[in-house]
Design a protein that fits this description.
The chain is an all-beta fold. It has a single domain (about 1-110), classed as OB fold (Dihydrolipoamide Acetyltransferase, E2P). Helix content is about 0%, strand content about 45%. Strands 1-2-3-5-4 form a 5-stranded mixed β-barrel. The structure holds zinc ion. Zinc ion binds next to loops. Zinc ion (ZN) binds near residues 12, 16, 21, 23 and 77.
């Protein structure tokens, strides 16, 4: 059965028996959550998500666009494509670089 993860997102239509899945396994999410763009799906069960944010430059009193990459775990019940907008949430560290997990992939994707 699908667990209530504490964040109001559409639960995935597919089911999986992944122990590290937030919906069907036993992985709790807590902390930060944000939306980003999938830029790479080359690794197994892992998505590289880019987050864009304005970064202030005091010398010019302007904001510059800054981008940071976050590695997020992609459970098998969520399908995401490169270029798609996804929502990720912080969880416990799953590996050296992964401490976020994909919780929702938007239906309307950019290709
Ligand atoms: Zn799942």
């Amino acid at each position: 059965m699908v667990r209530n993860i504490g964040i109001s997102v559409a639960s995935p239509r597919k089911t999986c028996n992944d122990t590290q899945c937030v919906f069907h396994g036993s992985l709790p999410v807590r902390g930060k959550s944000f939306s980003g763009l999938v830029i790479s799906l080359k690794s197994n069960k892992m998505a590289v998500v880019a987050r864009e944010y304005p970064h202030p430059v005091p010398k010019y009193k302007r904001l510059e666009r800054s981008r940071s990459k976050v590695h997020a775990y992609l459970p098998s019940c969520i399908t995401a494509k490169e270029g798609q907008q996804v929502r990720i949430a912080e969880c416990r560290p799953l590996s050296k670089t992964v401490s976020f997990t994909v919780i929702e992939a938007s239906e309307t994707n950019g290709g």
